[in-house]
Structure formats: C-alpha cells, structure tokens
Structures
1.
Amino acid sequence: MNAKELRAKNSRDLNQDLLKARREQFSLLMQRATGQAVKPHDFGRVRKDIARLKTVLAEKAAKESGK
C-alpha cells in the first residue's frame, strides 16, 4: 500500500481500509498475547499502513474544507 494508490481512492474506501488495518492490528496483538507465532515485521507494516491511511484522509479533509 503506497500513498499514490491511496490518494486515488475516495474517503469511504479509505475509511474501510483503515477499519480493516485496525482489525488486523488487533488480531496480531491477540495472536502475540496468546503465544501464537507472529512475524514481528507485521506490527510495523500495519502501524505504518494505518499512519498512511490517516494522513491521506486528513489531506482529503483539509482539501475539502479549503474549497
């Protein structure tokens, strides 16, 4: 997931992607807590995806309010 692809999506799709990423993050946390094997790099990947989504959503909101 990169920012160029995200900027092409509308706000509704971005919010759905953000919800999916947060669910994935929660799932990873639960897997780690129960002792299941989790790849450590997945935590960073999901956290960065969430940050990217929030950034693009904020950009879109600022652009819409600036009109």
2.
Amino acid sequence: MVSGARTRQTEPVKIGILTSGGDCPGLNAVIRGIVLKGDKVYEHTFVGIRDGYRGLVEDDVFTLPRKQVRGLSKQGGTILGTSRMGPYGEGAGGAERVKEVMEKHEMDGFIAIGGEGTLTVARMLHDEGVPVVGVPKTIDNDLSATDVTFGFETAVAIATESIDRLRTTAESHHRCMVVEVMGRHAGWIALNAGIASGAHAILIPEVPVTIEQVTDWVRATVNRGRAPVIVVAEGFRLAGEDVSAKHGVDHMGRPRFGGIADQLSPVIEERTGIETRSMTLGHLQRGGVPTSYDRVLATRFGTHAIDAVHRKEWGTMVALRGIDIVSVQLAEATSELKTVPRHRWDEAAILFG
C-alpha cells in the first residue's frame, strides 16, 4: 500500500472534539493530530464543541474541516475555546442532555481533552452510555495513568526562564525572591523548575515545611554571599501554621489557590531581616506557544486518540508509558492524583540553602 493512502476498514463516523478546564500549550496540536489522521486515514468527519462541556449542554457545535486545523501545532491556547462548566451542574441536564445534543448533530462519539476534572466528567458520562475517549491535558502533570501530560514541559520551561530572570535582579539588590508557580495538590512544576533554575528552596504541597526551616535555608544562602530564591507551589502550606492562600472554590468544589508567595514574603523578611519580594507567575505558565516536546507529544496523543475512536475503545484515555502511547481506562486515569513522591523532593533538598 502506498504510504499515506486511506485505509478505511469501517464506515466513516462523525466525532466531536472538546477542550475543557484550564487551557495549556499543545491543545491545538492535539486537535490537529485528531482531524488530520481521522480525515486522511479513516475518512471520519469532525465537529468542534465550543467552550468544553458548555457546548454540549447549550448546543454550541460547528463543523471542523481539515483546512481549519492547518498549521495549528505551534499555536497556543485552543481554537475550540474552553470553560469549567460541566453537564452535571444545576440545570445542565447531565448525560441525557449530552446524548440529545450528540444525536441532533449525528455524533457517533466525542473526544474530551482535559485534566482530572474533565476526564472525571468523561468517565461519568461513559458510565451512563455516552461514547467518549479522553486525552490527558494538564500543566500540573498530576494524572496517575500517564507518565507525562502535554503542557507540563512548556510550563516548566516558562517557569525556569522566569526564575532565571528574577535571579539576576535578586542578586543585584541582594534580595530574597519568593516565586510562586502553579500546582494545587501536586508540586511537579515547582520541583522541576526549582531544580532546573538552582533554587535555594522548593516548597510543594506534598511536603509540609516549617517557617524555621525556610528561614534557615534563607540565612544559609545569604551567609554564602548569595541572594536566596525560593520556588513555591500555589498549594503549599507551612507545617503547623495557618499560612496558605485560597480564593473560594471552583465549579467542582475544589479550592482556588494563589497568593502563597505574597503571604510568605513578609514573614521571611521579618524573621531574617533580608529584603524579600514575591512574584506569582500565574497564567503565564499556561500561555504562549508549546515547546517542541509538547508539540510532538500532543500530536501523538491526537493521532492515537482517533485510533482508539476507530477501534470503538470508548471509556478509555490515551497515555504515555515510557516512549509508547497506550490506552487505559478512564477510571484508572481519574482514581487518584499523581503527586510528587517524598524521595524526589529529598533528592532536591540536598541542594537547598
């Protein structure tokens, strides 16, 4: 068979695609991978679902032809839009409403691209008979069924570059810098960006640390003639003290975090006497173009997701295991978060102070 020829083995189907939850670099590369392979190899057709599950609830669906995904692999954000609305919210209609909209548009199934919240909803819909395949997306890298999620490597690269830049101004002014990165319950971004940038302390949700230990690291760094740089994940809490930052809850009842660096900075300055400034990187870590690694991983996830659809492997999610893409059950992907093991933090802690 000539390379690239169509290999249709069953009748073409119509598949919906949605991106839900927080955006991240690589979403468009997944969409491109799905549509290009689905059209070229299987002759499937596609519809875009606007703003995640909102589009399935409010019937906001549009045709997604191949020409509309050209050149998308390098583009940040998502051409489909996203939201944190779910079909199980009050008045949303649940699985029955989703089935109704899918039937209206003759969708044979849909692909949900998202993180733990998005894929939990996908599992719930599958349990009620909705045909769905998942693709893991989160900069937090906290989905247990896959070695890596796309978007994570880009977020770490952005955080590392930002910390490198902050270090130069910290050294110039002999200040302590506390840099806050994303990570509600998992400290993978903080750990990797902290190690890569040579941080003098890394504070993550998985490992409570006392303020005394933090200030000891700061003093030790100053005593060596350096300006301390502390990297802290947004979900970190000081051991034994009520110092954390929360801003209400999201649509799934999960706490919104942010601002822990602002709370830590004055405490560190008061206890050490060194001028301390804070910086919250926030949504910078979600924006911009994906790295080459994330473009490749996202594209592979997309092409393997349409393979899973073609095989009618509903209720599964594509995942990276080693260097291979495999399919796992959505229940496995959403049963628990993948948090940083203590030994990984201990490896980094040797270098603190």
3.
Amino acid sequence: MLVVIRGAGDIATGIALRLYRCGFRLVLCEVSQPTDIRRTVCFAEAVRLGRTTVEGVEARRADLEEVPELLEDGIIPVLVDPAAACVPALGPGAVVDAILAKRNLGTTRDMAPVVVGVGPGFTAGVDCHGVVETKRGHDLGRLILEGSAIPNTGVPGDIGGYTEERIIRAPADGLFEPLAAIGDRVEEGAPVARVAGAMVCARLTGVVRGMLPAGLAVKQGMKAGDIDPRCEARHCFTVSDKARAIGGGVLEGLLYFGKEKGLWSV
C-alpha cells in the first residue's frame, strides 16, 4: 500500500523507516526550507541536499512525475509539497500527518481510506481515523481510537533529568552560525552557536544531537539545536526511541483501520 506522510522531520522519518521495513511504499511531503534540527536522522535533509540516507534507507527530493521510478528502485521520494496537494494524483491507501505542528494544517479524514494524525491537534473519528500519542511517558506511541492526544505543554521532554536546558535557541534574528557540529561533545558554558554577533552557550554538558545548518535565517528564540546529556554520540545518527515508538503506533493504526476497511486481511 502507498502511504503519503506529511512531514519529513525526525519523528516522521522514524515512522517512515518502520513502515518502509514492513513493505509499505512511501511518499513524504515537506516544506521548501525545513527547520528540523536532528538533520542526521531526517529525510527532510533530501530537500536541502537532494538526497540523504538514514539507517541505510535512501530518500531523494523529487517531483511528482519521478515518484513511480523512485518507488520501483526502493527510494523514498520527498516532495516539496507542504499542503500534500499530491494526494489526489497518487491515490494513497493512507495519509499520515506527522508535521507535529501541534495543530491540524489541513488534513481531513476523507483524504484516504486510512488517515492517522500524530500528536496534538487531531481528534480520532473527526479529522482522522486514529491518533498516535507523542508525549513521553506511559502512553507514548499509543493508538487513540476516540478523542485526542495530550495537549502540548510547551515543555521539552525530560532526557537525563533535563528539559528546557537541552534546547539551543537562536539568540537574535539573523543568519544562523553553528559553532559545534552534530555529534560533538560540549561542556556547560561553551559557545555552541552565533547569530548576528550574539552568542548562545550550552546550558549543560552533553553531545550535540541536533543543530540547524549554517546560513539559515532564524528568529530570536527559535529552536536551533539540542544537547543530549547522555553523551552517547551514536544516538545522534540513529532514530530515537520516541520516533520508533510513534512509528509502531502508526503501523498499528494502518493495520487496524486497513483491516477494518477490508484493505487486507490478517
């Protein structure tokens, strides 16, 4: 079955990898200038670089007419198509909204036989068939058949006892200049990025897990990077536990609703 995924960030990429390995054909839709910080595990990097590989799976920036050939070659096409305007032409069996905008940016239940919303902003049975929980904790990755995911708290998830301290934020408006690379270990207080002459320093000791690319225009306070206090550099280059759990929930949703609608039997 063909699945269109709205979004190609780290969570959407974790979902895509799980579905790809289970035999689904995938097309991902992204914005023209992605701002994902975990670039080493984001298929969105294909928009910027033309192609990228995550855990051995290749994705390429593509136009709609290139999709069939790439799918035949086992490559994931990434379209610059934030509104998912490709859906009527592709006729997918399922649409997954993994933009993680904390609100619905136009996904409707009639876009495909199965529609799954990821995170806050969706209501199962209203604008999608099922919702997958994205908040860390007991319900992470749970398929919700009625109601919505937990509302966004605005507080980053706890990793190693740190929440907001993990986040690198742009100190000013301007062009972003990273001073540390993904995978680097940094000490608390060390400069990690600069914008328009204003410096931002690490608020904890750890490994840089995410960082915006150089030259990207940013606004003051914008999320620009992430430091992981667990200090495991290899974590920077593989899909996270959170993304894998959410991917499992999406897979469950596709199988559950697909079976219910007679798309396949199990």
